[in-house]
Amino acid sequence: MKINRTGVSGINPYQKQFHKPHGPKKPSEAQTDKLEISSAAKGMQEVSKMTKERTEKIARLKQQIAKGEYQPNPEKIAEGIVDFYKK
């Protein structure tokens, strides 16, 4: 019995990979790391600044309340509530 080569004519398709040079890449071809900060992340950083200001304001109010110096203005409180619910 005789077996004939059929299909790809006996050529190894993976043989081309053996002939490629695997030397080091040029520095211009080497990839470098890159970091980009999104606008959402930048917005989050600004929120943290606001949080710091709020904590300072709360600390001042607590001191005023502890000393008995805090005098709330009911009209401003009412305006703030109305403005909040109008938006």
From TrEMBL:
It comes from the Bacteria. Residues 1-15 have a biased composition (Polar residues). It holds the Pfam family FlgM. Keywords: Bacterial flagellum biogenesis, Cell projection, Cilium, Flagellum, Repressor, Transcription, Transcription regulation. SUPFAM superfamilies: Anti-sigma factor FlgM (SSF101498). The keyword Transcription applies. Residues 1-32 are annotated as: Disordered. Residues 33-83 form the Anti-sigma-28 factor FlgM C-terminal domain. Belongs to the FlgM family. This is Negative regulator of flagellin synthesis. It comes from Bacillus lumedeiriae.
